[in-house]
Amino acid sequence: MRYTYGLTIAYDGTKFYGMQYQKDQITVQQKIEEALEILFKKKIKIFAAGRTDSGVHATGQVISFKTPIPILDPQKFMNSINALAGPHITVMKFHHLPLPFHARFDCIAREYEYLIFYGKKNPIFLQNKVWHIDEEDLDLFSIQEEVNEILGERDFRAFCKRPSENTIRYLEYVKIEKKIDNFMQLPFYSIQIRGNAFLHNMIRILIGTIIDRIQNRINISLKEILESKDRTKAGKTAPAEGLYFRKAYYPKITDLLNSDLNLLESYPIFGSSFYKNQLQNERI
Fold first, then answer.
1. Is the peptide bond before 100 cis (omega within 30 degrees of 0)?
2. Where along the chain do its domains lie?
């Protein structure tokens, strides 16, 4: 018999060559799978809700895996993973899951946040955790209306590093807020983005393009860039260190109600999976 479990994890992306396994590189997947192999005395493969790049952080990444024996003490198990895979990875939550669950394929939405610290002062306590732009009067609110014009289900080929894949994605929202950091009590921008899935470097290219538009380095609108389907029309790729994987969302169905995952009921479904299909059937 096999058992399915999940973990919500956080990690410092600057310490890893991304989430997904890479030959001859240290990745989050590698560290967790090594820990699981020690605990279960056999190789166990994990599946992640999102494939974050090198340098990208996470506070709400969800992974799933199957084990040959049940996990009877979740807290002890989490402590063991923290000890074996740490110190730059930590488990935030433990999830009991039904056998068919898959962290990637069943995920219906992903939420990221990009942090931009601006001004002349050096954010010494936020090194490698924000994009620092040395400009006092950076007005991101001025582009919110333009950003809203590219929301919805669209072809984001212009904001993709590798346009060979299917480039149609659903972008639900891009929210720009100003916050105060807890260390130096200085303002910074938070850009929260949620969609069904994201292309390679899509968020970082979008953020870089927003900054280039504000700084008058690009003279056409985001909508015109989108419609061009031409990566050369978009702006630079923003640094990885400002990007955070915040949440993964799953279908709000009976089988997952007690899973402690983030669940959505009335969200557009793209693609097919065991639980996506179940949610679609429940809507009929």
1. no
2. 3-107+246-283, 111-244
